Every structure is written in C-alpha cells, then in structure tokens.
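agent> Task received from the user: take the single chain below, predict its 3D structure, and emit structure tokens. No templates, no multimer pairing.
agent> Plan: (1) validate residues, (2) run structure prediction, (3) serialize to tokens, (4) report one or two observations.
agent> Step 1 OK, no nonstandard residues flagged.
tool_call: predict_structure(input=
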Amino acid sequence: MLWLGRAFGFREAPKHSDVLSRLWWRCCYHHARKWYPGDCVCGCIADHRTGSEWRFESRERYTEVCPDARIPLRVFSRQHGYCTVEHALKREQVGAVASVTRLEVPLPSGLQRNRERTGVLSPGKRFRREVSSSSSSSSLPPQSTVASAGPASAHSASAPSTSAWWTAPGPTYYDGRHTHADEVLLGTVLDSDRSGLRNTVRAFAHEYIAPYAAAIDEANRFPREQLWTELGNLGVLGVATANAYGGLGLGLVEHCLVMEELSRASPSIGLSYGAHSNLCMMQIERHGSAAQKERLLPPLCSGVWVGALAMSETGAGSDVLGSMRTSAYQRKRTTAAGELRSGWSIRGTKMWITNGPDADVVVVYARTPELESHSASTSTLAAVESASSSSLPKQSKPKLTAFVLETAQLGPRYRVAQKLDKLGMRGSNTCELVFDDVWVPDDAVLGEPGLGTTVLMAGLDAERLVLSAGPLGIMQACLDVVLPYVRERQQFGSPIGTFPLMQAKLADMYGALAASRAHTFGVAASVDKLTRQIGEPTPPGSSKHGGLNPQLRRFRKDCASVILQNAERATQCALQAIQALGGNGYISDYPTGRLLRDAKLYEIGAGTSEIRRILIGRELYEASHATK
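)
tool_result: status=success, residues=628
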C-alpha cells in the first residue's frame, strides 16, 4: 500500500461520543506520479449536522462512518441508496492525526460529488474553505511544498509562498478512460500512435488537472509552478514543434487531440496551452530565424518558459489591421560596451493578452510608419504616372512588423499594466501590456520588417483550427457531468434519465459533440495531409495569399466554420447541462456554470462569430466567382 499524503486540520472537533471523536478530522492529500485506485485515501469530511463522517476514498468510493458504531459503514449512492457493509474499521495513523478507513466494495464513479439528498457539501469546495480558514492555525502541521512543476520564475516572486489553494483536490466527474463520440474517429483519424497520445494526455489530465479545475477557477491563478513543467515533461507543449527543438514533430490532428483532452479537464488550462503552443510557438517555428528557434523553442517546449501572443488592442479588435496603434520606429542605441546597434523602439499597449502576466516570450505585432510612408510615396508616384485624371490612388495598407521578445530583457519600460478579472477562463491569466518606448535589437524581428501581416494572417487558420478543439473538451465535460447525474437523480420514483425530454437533451448534446468532433478532425487531417505533400505551409518571404501556400488557403473557410460551429454548440451544451441538473446546475458545487462561462469565450476570441461568418461567406463568394 502506498500512502503519500499530508494532513490538514479543521478548526473544531465533531460533537459525538464515537471513539473517533478524540481525533480532529483531518484530510489527507494524495499527490503521486502514479494513481493507485483504492490504495489511497483522498480525504474525509466531518458532517456536524448528522454527527457522522463522510469519506471519499480514492475516486470511486464515498462512504459514511456511523457515529454510534465502529464497524458498520454506510455507503451512499442515489442509484443504490444506503447499504451497510460489514467491514472492520482499520485505523492507521497518517502524521499521527488521521484515521484511515478502507472499503473493499467499489462503487460507480462520480459519487464524491455533492449529495443534495443528505445536504453534504461538495467535498472539494468544503475542503478548500476549511484549508483557507485554518492554514494560519499554529496547531496544524507545517505545510511542505507540493511537488513543483518547475523552477521558480520571476513571475511567481510576488505570489504568496503558500500553495494551499492548489492542495485541495475536488471532485472528478469522469473516470479518465471513456470519451463519448469516440466512434466517429475510429478507423479514420485515430491510429495506434494517436490513440496512445490521447490516452496518455487523458490520464494525466484526469489525475493532475481535473481535480483542481474548480480551485483554479475560484482562485483565478495560473498553476505555473505546479503544472507547466509537468506538461513540458509530457511533451505536449511542443507537440507540433520539430524534434530538433525538443518537440514531438507531430501535426494538427495531434495538436487538437491534446487541446481537447486538456480542455475537458480544465478549459482555462486548455486555453493557456493553446496560446502557448499554437499562437506563440508555431509562429516562431514557421517564421523565426535559426538563431531565434534555437534560443526560444527549447525552453518553451520544456515548460520552463511561457509564451504569449500580443495582437489585440483596446481600439483594435475585429479591425486589428486598420485600427492598430502600437508602433515601432527604427532607432540606434549605444550598448554598455560602447557598440552602436540598430534596432526598434516599440510604443503602445496591447489588451486581452492570454498568458500575458506569466509570459517569458511574447510575439508582438506593431505598425511601422516609416515603412508605410516609403510604400505610400512609391505607390503614389506610380499612380500619378499611370492613373487617369478621374481616379485617385487608394490609401496604402498599414505595414506591420512582427517581433518576438524575451520579457526579461525588455527593462522597466515594459510592464504588465493590469490583470483582467474575466467572467470565464479564470486561471488562464489575461492582461494589458504596456510598451513605453521599449528598445529591441534588429534580431527581435520575426520574419521580415513590414511583412508582419504575412505572419499574422498565415497563423490565423491554424489558430482557429487548434482552438476549435477547446469547445470539444467543454462539450465532453458537459456529458461527463450530465450522464451520471441523470442515472442517479430520481423524481417521480424513477431516474430522470428515463424521461423522454431528458433523453432528448442527451441526444442533442451527443449529436453536437459527434458532429463537431468529426468536422474538426476531418479538417485537421486534410490540412496535415496536404502539408506533408507540399512541404512548407508558409513559404519564406512570401506575401501573396496572406503568406499561406495557395493550396492551403482553400481551407480558410473550413477552419473558420469549425470554430464557429464548435463554439456555439459548446455554449448550447453547457446551457443544456445546467438545465438537466436543475437547481444543482445553477450552484457552484457543480461545474456546469463554470463550463458555460468558459465556453462563451470561444464565440469572442480568435475572431468573433460575426467575423467568422463574414469570412466564410466572402471565401465562398470569391471561390464561386473564380470558377466562372
């Protein structure tokens, strides 16, 4: 038997005469690299209302110790009711303060969540409240640091030294093995290697992310120290990055598989993962120089660094190209060694930047007015020589330049102005970044000066495709909550899952998930296949077709339609999940409200639903016009 844990105390002892009353109820936290089902006690809760003790043992047992007897144990399930199990009470000391009970009868998964029949609080939520209120008590044993996910960083210097917010695993609503609508991928997209990758990520997310999803949302904190390097060790941060830089060298199908599984466990972690691995790392690998790739990609793949993309501004959302105000001007600077170096001075602000407060590497887009004026004078001279007297030259398009910056080297003129308090995706930190004449050298340019639009547009399709797997995870999470609930919850003497109207909701949710999953991975597989055939998806220095290979450009409408449909279906699935749970769906003890708040972001980020519809319609119109 493997006992790995830590004991935390409650502020008062239970008020009954059982032999266990001589002990304060303590919770044991299991944290290990491997999960041993049935061998580890995850915690216990003293129920002062009934005088009994509720224990959630492993992830499949939920038992009650009766106050008037030491031997009989009661096991509660809405499906099976109460049952008495003749099993000797085995007492072991964990830290000399905890009493441990083992039960040999396994129960259906999901029984550790809130029990509205008995009025018992959700174990995870109650445990977090007790830990936060008693963490300063001198009677508690000292807290040791949870296994850190990586070395401390400058971004965590201001964070509290305690990690109590992370040491409270809550309920997990799925068993880590089964996924609904898997059948739509069998024989088409999933081979043995992809299935192995998916199962590995699924098991990791089930054990290390899902139990803390509610705590991440409640604390609104990004678990960099606890999680990010572990994801790097797993290899998923660089799933689409070349092996030479520490990645796995896989394609968009694998990228979407990882994104879905992480989002199933915690949508906010999935969003941060997408911003890191896709928005930042993919841009660097496609457009960066050899020196930039060798310097930046290995620490990003390993999880030592966190990446971000800075494009949007307060006044530049959907019209990001025409309304961008952040500018970069060519400036020379004398270094400390007396060397005169050429570079750029960046001035402006960026808004709604995912991973911004934690970012070590940021891809930044800025206008370069000096290049715009040169381009405008050239185009005006050509127009005067060739245009008729009745026509005027069109206004030149803004010239953007992409920069890849290491935040630790930017100095005090770069700062995080504010961390935004969002409705959903809490824990995926978002902020405003300020560049107050920040000087960067020429080698910080990503691609070529003035061709930032090429870099930006070439990455949008892959961004939409990878992020569209986030709503898949949310829809899967909704089914993970609803299906066990409708089996256990009874009304009018029957499980509510037997009612036709409830079965119709299940059918709608499953149909939305299956159709979205088939669409997403079908497009991803097609793009991967064509990319392998044609080679470079973005030819270096090419500005035609938005910098994207013309053969791949025909998937632009498909990538937009995938995230359009997935995002709206995820929101509807979350609403259906709330409705299926009724009053329980509207309280925080269940994750349905959090899933709804998280799902709504995908209708706004990476281009709003309205912009996606405009793009799809325009692409279809232009394609039909070209065929005539």
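agent> Step 4: summary for the user.
The CA atoms of residues 130 and 452 lie 51 Å apart.
agent> Done.
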